[in-house]
Amino acid sequence: WRRVLRSHVRARIDLSWARPEWLLTDSALGHVVGDLFRSVGALALSGCRGISDEGLRAVAHNCPALASLNIRCCGQVTDAGVRAVAEACSELRHICADATRITGDSTRALADHCPLLTAVSLDHAVRLRDDDVVYLLDKLPDLQHVGLEGNFKLTEDAFREMGQRCPNLRTLRLSGCRCVGG
Fold first, then answer.
1. Is the pTM of this model over 0.85?
2. Given a cut of 50, is residue 46 above it in pLDDT?
């Protein structure tokens, strides 16, 4: 049955907000994506505080066809993990990296290696700057959904660029950004 799962099932795995006593570790995640479900299409790890860059490297290594990744509130995840996924998973269409420790290195890796991205959520990724967002928009003009809530370092210059560079933009979340509404 494992052989069937590995070769035929494009799995959607949601391990989000696992109970604290079930602390999902990098090792456990590596087992899930490496041994059980090698053809993961969508992976949700929101709130899994035991996941770090090592876990994302396992995802990158084992899930090259990954189309959707949610690492919201995975506080140990940094640019190294996101970069590993971006470089290995060129079919990525959606990523949610809200409230992580990523910087512009992640947005650049995503922009350079994931041309199919249509939805990017970077709410409360407070290390992002205008040039990081503009680079992403420049490389991914087909973006339809962008979340940047709570990114207080961004200025209206970045938002002005969005209107010019992303003609397909349908959803833009900006609440909590200093230059919005003030």
1. yes
2. yes
